[in-house]
Design brief:
eight-stranded antiparallel sheet, alpha+beta, 8 helices, 307 residues, globular, single chain
Amino acid sequence: MVQKMEKIWFDGKLVPWDEAQVHVLTHTLHYGAGVFEGIRAYECVDGRSAVYRLEEHIDRLIDSAHILGMKIPFSAEEIVKGCIDTLKANGQKNGYIRPLVFIGDGVMGVHPGDNPIRVIIATWPWGAYLGEEALKKGIRVCTSTYARHHVNVMMTKSKCCGNYVNSVLAKTEAVANGYNEAIMLDTQGYVAEGSGENIFVVRDDIIKTPPLGNVLGGFTRDSIIMLAQELGYEVREEPIGRDTLYIADEAFFTGTAAEVTPIREVDRRQIGEGTCGPITSLLQDEYFKIVKGENEDYGDWLHYYEV
Ligand SMILES: *Cc1c(COP(=O)(O)O)cnc(C)c1O
């Protein structure tokens, strides 16, 4: 259960958690045309708190809405401030931030007409998305029977609510079959991503990840590519088949929620030593140093705030 907090930012105002309600004829509830973000705040080593790549997340939220033809009635600055105000109102030194832009009630039918565009920002404490154990030892995953969206069917660069039906199907199937997460292939059969995470494989010290064709360009993916290159590794963005996954020395997922989660098994085949590999472990450590303010080179990515 999501832990109940004090306040939720709703259309520009902080309202009590229980009062953040909508009508059942809310357009997005019926047709899925809404967009969201997933952002994390970390307590830093110096005792301050910082939101990771906050401005970029909000720009992506606005882009996601723009792709759907939705005009958000708040500026990027107002939404950034809303995120910080909500964390403060909830007394959170760390946690997850979920802005959501949706179409309110008014007309029904797939053309939303002049229905209001509404915005909420909720925050709550959220530990490791796939569990603490998963971060250390890795997870077991399967190739999904569901393909990832085709670029001409859904807008894969938009973090759109409706896109996530595909993720819910894949993840639910994976968990029902005893796995922790699903890997989805694109409609051509190449590895795309997890249900809400980008994927990387390592073989002979070369790091590979699928190109951005039909996957969401994650900020964690971007951070890891930069970090790996800085550490001297060759990173290739190229199509990956599932066979490449099977013979990888290491594999891992990246995402704001999943952070850097090692994959120890794919379709009942052990990956490498069947635990978190050395390069994954190094990148994970370095990633946590960045988000917790221990690497000054990446200080620009941190939006500090005080509770
Ligand atoms: C949000 C998301 C990711 C991860 O993006 P981050 O910016 O790293 O959190 C990856 N894939 C999909 C489909 C997503 O929606």
